[in-house]
Design brief:
There is one protein chain. This protein is mainly β and 116 residues long. Helices cover 0% and strands 59% of the residues. It has strands at 2-7, 10-13, 18-26, 31-39, 46-51, 57-59, 67-72, 77-82, 91-99, 103-106, 110-115. Strands 2, 4, 5, 6, 9, 10 and 11 form a seven-stranded mixed β-sheet that branches. A four-stranded antiparallel β-sheet has the order 1-3-8-7, with no helix packed on it. Strand 9 (91-99) and strand 10 (103-106) form a beta hairpin. The N and C termini lie far apart (40 Å).
Length: 116
């Protein structure tokens, strides 16, 4: 079992920045890839960025160049630095952990609101 707790969401003006954090606990040794997803009202949940244990990262086209994902493996934490935020980035952001055997765990979500 893996538990994920996100923090760092909030309200920010367009052009501003936020940093999301996700702390993992439990069977963290089994985590392979960690990532951030988001879900806007009325839309499907989408992958924003993820990062492997080896440090390889993926970004959705809509956030590439603005968001940076990083991972502190000894402290079982993943971060999402979000710069140049746009109103269309408004969503609930969820941390995800993929473990050996391809099971997924999710955090409870943190809300990000970007005002124009």
């Amino acid at each position: 079992q893996v538990q994920l707790v996100e923090s760092g969401g909030g309200l920010v003006q367009a052009g501003g920045s936020l940093r999301l954090s996700c702390a993992a606990s439990g069977s963290t040794f089994s985590i392979t890839t960690m990532g951030w997803y988001r879900q806007a009202p009325g839309k499907q949940r989408e992958l924003v960025a993820d990062i492997t244990r080896g440090g390889s990262s993926y970004y959705a086209a809509s956030v590439k160049g603005r968001f940076t994902i990083s991972r502190d493996i000894p402290n079982n934490t993943v971060y999402l630095q979000m710069n140049s935020l746009k109103p269309e980035d408004t969503a609930d952001y969820y941390c995800n952990a993929l473990i050996t055997g391809n099971n997924n765990y999710w955090g409870q979500g943190t809300q990000v609101t970007v005002s124009s």
